[in-house]
Design brief:
This protein has about 525 residues and is an alpha/beta fold. It contains 22 helices and 7 strands. Bound molecules: iron/sulfur cluster (SF4).
Amino acid sequence: MSMRRPDPCLSVWILGDQLLAHHPALVAAEQAVGRENVRVVLIESAARTRRLPYQRKKLVLLFSAMRHYALQLAVDGHQVQVIAAPSFLEGLRQHTQSCHPQGLLTMAASEYRGRHWQQDQLSQLLGIPVTVLPNTQFLVGQHDPFPSASLDRRVVMETFYRAMRRHFDVLMDARGQPAGGRWNFDDQNRRPLPRGHQPPPLPGFATSAMTRQVMAEVATLPSAQATGSVDGFDFAVTRTEALAALEDFLTHRLRSFGPYEDAMSAQHATLYHSVLSPYLNLGLLEPLELVRAAEQAYHAGRVPINSAEGFVRQVLGWREYITWQYWRLMPALAEANGWDAHRPLPAFFWGEPTEMACLRRVVDRAISTGYSHHIERLMLICNFCLLAGIEPTAVDDWFLSTYVDAYEWVMLPNVLGMGLNADGGQTATKPYVASAAYISRMSDYCQGCRYNPKQRTGADACPFNFLYWNFLLSHEDTLRQNPRLGQSVLGLRHLDDAERGRVRAEAERFLQQLSAEAAGDPA
Ligand code: SF4
């Protein structure tokens, strides 16, 4: 019996969130066998994209960016296949059966299960050698500032961030000190948006025929498989467009990014935020180019230090810290539930009505656009879910479904760790809980709300208020042990027994109603 000998070609599998200008597996394969002997494959896996009912714009962004990337590779002389298949394995089998490669090169997935599958099973499943190269999408892949930190050691973001700044020499002066004389300008970055202030619009990108084809495909997905609408899709889908989005941010928004970084607005969804995370997380942009661009704008005198540092902190600090924590805490992180929260996700997260104006606006916006900025995610959505005791995995799934920039590696540490403090305080040293006073100070949401942000109990009391105090009362002993929460817990001194009883009763009534609505049984 004669066996078919493998051709002298190598295959390169490029994952949909690895659309790098210089993909390491492609570079390595070309160096090994020459471009003419490399076969590139990208797979649109139905199993992967139906894991959750994803926001339609998110699916359009992913598929359109993949297809444009493949087209560019073909223009550059590569032999490329884009395969729509029931699963990644089926797609890879179709590909290897069509070209019989001597081996497959790929880059490690950014997600835990995918990476272990590549490393531990793929070669055997395909019957060919598989080389999994290190992932280059994160700067911690180049430099891990705390390579041997055990889980017993808590490394806070600030320590991590300063180590990264020093190593990559970002915003450091000639004496090795932080530019502007300080590491942190948070005290200058907490301004609410002045009334009538008009932030510049985000750039929108015209849809190509290829994007319109993807939109037509995604628009017809049944509602059990997708949410939101493709209408109005105008994200960048190529590196050229993503670079234009970066340039627009540097020119029009970075200057005021710092002061209004924490502001929230009913009128303006994106304010001065970069909205570059969808491109960064797909590989269309790379973290160091963003960081260097902001640093350069500061050195050129175009933006103040609090804006440049605030942006660098997001990319070189938070983003890298989050992925570092993800790999450190997985797989246990996926199941973390440190506050023993088990309430189902309220129905208004899927568009049912709520009288809470802030949440209604932010959730509606997220479902229709796939985006809200990080303070709305943290201080509105996660704050509410932590106070209301919502099951962490349900919150995480909602973020994964809804946000265009959401992937497991970023959402688990951000939502379960930072937002819900469900990881035992590994990611954030305190639970980020706040009453309506914070939301009222940092936004204009309360002006259009039927609730009163100043009232703690009573018919018009804002739910954030009685839920906040109920959370402190319910977890008083635990919270007292946290030095960063001293003042909040001390505030309980001002609540007499009667007020404590009213807070508990209001919270109980509200939470029961929430659970009933989630079960489809409005009381
Ligand atoms: Fe949100 Fe409460 Fe303000 Fe209404 S009053 S917008 S529910 S914080």
